[in-house]
Predict the structure of DNA ligase.
Amino acid sequence: MTTSPAVEALTTPAQYEAAIARVRAAARAYYGGDGDIAAESVMDDAMYDRELLAVAAYEQAHPGQAAADSPTHQVAAGAAPVGDVAHTVPMLSLDNAFSAEQLTAWGESLQRRLGRPVEGGYTVEPKLDGAAIAARYRDGRLVQVVTRGDGRFGEDVSHVIGTVDGLPERLRTPATVEVRGEVLFTQAQFEDANRIRAEHGAKVFSNPRNGAAGTLRAKDRPYRLGLTFWAYGAVDLDGGSFLPAGAPHSEVLALLSAAGVRTTRDNPAALRCVRTIEEAQARVEEIQAMRPSLPFGIDGVVVKADDVAEQRAAGFGSRFPYWAIAYKLPAVERTTRLLDVEWNVGRTGVLAPRARLEPVELDGTTVEYATLHNPADIRRRDLHIGDTVTVYKAGDIIPRVQAAVVGLRPADAVEVPLPEACPHCGGDIDRSQERWRCVKGAACRLPALIAYAAQRDCLDIDGLGTTYVNALVASGAVADIADLYTLDLETLSRAAGSEKRGANLVAQIEAARLKPLSRQLCALGIRNTGRRLSQRIAAHFRTMDAVRAADAEAMQEVEGIGPEKAPGIVAAFAELAPVIDKMTAAGATMTEPVGEGAGEGPLVGEDGRPMKVVVTGKMTGPLAELGRTAMKDLIERAGGKSGDGVTAQTAYLVAAPSAGGKPSSKAIKAEQLGVRVLTPEEFADLLGDLLD
Ligand SMILES: NC(=O)c1ccc[n+]([C@@H]2O[C@H](COP(=O)([O-])OP(=O)(O)OC[C@H]3O[C@@H](n4cnc5c(N)ncnc54)[C@H](O)[C@@H]3O)[C@@H](O)[C@H]2O)c1
Ligand SMILES: [Zn+2]
């Protein structure tokens, strides 16, 4: 699904060495190995992972030429700052899987190592995107905190004791134990941290992970930043009196939780025990679905063998244990180039900047625009046109520009220019607040909005030319679109200069009022929704009430509205609530007649709307040859709509019975929601001759 930045296969020793140098330089910047505390990545993770895979592929193909100190077999690519505190047991990294197939392959390799099936089951827990630490407790008191470092030696960062939520200074039991886990900024802590840093004139952190890693290592900052901890393991240091020998992973974490440490069990995406890899995969998908709503970053899901004896039997490589794997989720942060900053004037006259970017693949979608807040914020982030910037996307929120990678700034980069006059009307700008606005306020855009609404393919009020509109706005008779519907003959005659023209306008406005919902939507002039999209929204929802009730997810069911546009459109409807109420009160039509835009076919519902169909797994029988796109086409030709996830609105789930007899996670969901599940054969029957 996600396309990745291309990395050429390495074919010569020179290319191989150059790739290693790039990986190492990126890793040094990433882990702060150059001694720079507020480390700044020069490559994004997706690119880094691709480069590292290319190095590994070359080493597989040319085993004799692999460098002894290759980043492929060193923790942190051998580039993290190493301290002088020896670890009790090495702190390793994790092997990665990027697909269900790779997770299955890992399960099979684990079985091969054990020489029999895994009996103790697996745990599935979030992979928190922060920095790893080992926290040593003696008799229940936290005495030392150490970073991962190179896995064998770490840095003493005990100065953070007392500032990390979830890592208490005292346990509820006098245990002597080393707790291992991840330290990070939650989203809220990250925003606080950047606010505090801005107040102290310090550079803002480019992302929560780098910020947390830098904060761990910074010993004498004049301010304190709150961090959060989640434990994902422990090392017994008192001969089994706190952690019984042989306690499975899940039980170790339960004991830590009981002792007062926050663990991956105490998390909205909590650790679960499962029996099979299929169940693990289903839980991975659940956690992935939760990701946008989590108040902190995760970059994957970790699956581990729960049983300690099985862990021991599987063993370790130089870089990672064989009994655990990180299922990586698509990147939510990428770096790309800032091409330009555009300024739009909002309905109330606010000047809103947005960044135009070199298109980049982020969390499964291509991103070309990102939010910027206001001029002061642009200056705080020290953004230049031409900069390489980090772009961050949490859930379905519009992506935002986080920071510039100052180290990569080209010589000809220029500070982002700020507007000198209103970009819409050319008038003066009120700069008294952080958000700049046109001094005309709402009146800045109103004449243009009304002229737009009056066009033929919108409300079609032919006689309402620019001069009359300006007169109506200037006299105060019209302050929004809804006011058009309440204008009387006298006011219109005055604006138009004669009673005859006034009467003509009254008749046209009366006709406009009766136009269907799609035209009324168009007249609202919502950014990103032209005439066509207004038609689709109206055909999909049928009533204004349904449109207003739709959240971003529901809005995306309209063809042509993706995760990028949906939140802005939903927000615009909310903002326009008073105008819509006024239009409704003035008698404007707020429904769309069935027929207009409604389809025909076996997948058209009784209400004339397309039925939602979700397809999962490989097709069989008469549909065996059809891939994803062909199935989607077929569903649409039948008048339906294809969707990715099973929801209460899904009409059918088409699923081949799985080979192992185990229902897929979608099938389980369908059953829970009472959605009908059809075999490919049954579905083919339903479609009838559409298949030929
Ligand atoms: N952008 C760059 O330039 C750059 C450079 C180096 C590394 N990286 C990124 O860093 C990652 C590799 O770094 P890594 O070797 O530190 O490994 P990693 O972060 O991918 O995975 C290992 C770490 O995961 C952490 N973790 C979080 N939750 C866990 C859980 N529930 N159970 C166990 N461990 C858990 C542990 O700290 C462990 O050390 C890659 O994703 C790579 O893209 C990026
Ligand atoms: Zn203006």
Notes: The longest strand covers residues 333-345.
